[in-house]
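Marked as duplicate of an earlier ticket. Keeping the data here for the record.
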Amino acid sequence: MNIYEVQLRQESPVLVSGIAADSRYLKHSTSYIEGYTLRGALLTYISRELKKDVKEEALKPTIIFHPAYPTFRKEVSRPAHPLLLCCKVCREDKIFPSIDSIEKIRDFDINELFKVTCRRGHLYTVSNMKGELVVKIDKTYYKLSQYLQSLDSTAINKYVKSSEIGMLFGYLTLLPVHEEDGQLKQNIFIGKIVDTENRLENLLEEEDFEIKIGRGKSKGFGKFNVHIKLLENYVEKRTKIIENVLQKTNNIIMLRSLSLSFGLEINNHGIFTNLKLDLDAKPHYVLKDKNYLLTGIKTISGFSLKVAHGGIPKPRISGAAPGSLFFYEINTDKANYLAEKELKGFGPLSYGGLNILEVVTDV
C-alpha cells in the first residue's frame, strides 16, 4: 500500500456546485475539494491526457481519495468541530475550545457547549463554528476566509453569431487567492491518496501535472497544478501519535469527520443511511444514546455516466457533515488499526472520499 500527499495549487476561478435548483445560476458550494471530485478529475486526466485505460479502477476501485483542504500559513485547515466556539465581540482569540485539553474529554459535560459567556466575559456572544475551516497555530485558532466572485455568461448562437435569447447564465466562483496576514496568497489544497494495490504508479507518468476540476472548463475555470509525493512510514508515525492520545484520554477517542460520514442499513423497506461507523470499538455516549456531536446533516447526489445520453440520477446520500465528532472507547493496542482505518475509511464508498475521519489529537 502506497500513501501519497497530493498538493493542488489553484490557478483560476473554480466552480464546484452541489444540488442546484436553478441550472442558470450555479454557485460554488464547497470550501474544500471533495474526494470524489478529485477522483473524477484525476481519472479523467489519466484517460484523456495520458491515454491510459482506467476502466478497471472505475469498475473495481482500489485507490482511495481523501478530501483536500486549503492551507493557511502552510498549515492544512480542518473543519471546526462542535467543541470549538466563537465570540462575536472579541477582536483577538475569538475562537476557543469548550474544554482546555484533550485529557478532559474523559469528563466531558455536554453543557459545556451551551456557554453564554466567552473567556473574556462577553455575555450572549458565543456561537458554534458549525464546520467552518480553521487552523491552529501556536495555540491560537484562525478562521479561513475565501473570496467568491460573481461572473455572467451569455450563450452565443453558432449560426447567427449573436446572443441566444433566454440563455444568460450566472456563476459564483471561488477565486484562486485568499487573505493571509494582510496579503493575498494563492490557494493551495492538500489531501491524500491511498493506493491499496499500487496501481497509481503505473497510471501516472510524473509527479507534476495539470488537471481541471468542476464546471466551466471551457471558460477557463478549475485549473490546478498538482504535485504528488510519496509519504514514507506514514502508518508507523501516525500509530505513535494515536497511542499518545489514547494514553492521555484513558482509551477514549474523538473521530472528526473530514467528509460526509454515514453507515448503511438494509431492511425490507430498502436501503437507508444512519450514523453508525464501521469501527470495531465501543461507542462512548455523550448525550443519552448518542455517541456523536454533529455540525449538521449533509446530502449529496450525482449522475451515472454508464448510459448513452445524459446519465441517470443516483440515489441521494445523507450523513454527518464535515467537522462532526464521533466518540468511541478503544484499547491502546489498536492504535495501528485506527491509523489504517483513517486511510481506508470508516464505511462504504471510501474510495470516493466518503466516510473519511481522523483521530482528534488536540482540541
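See parent ticket for discussion. The mean pLDDT is 88.
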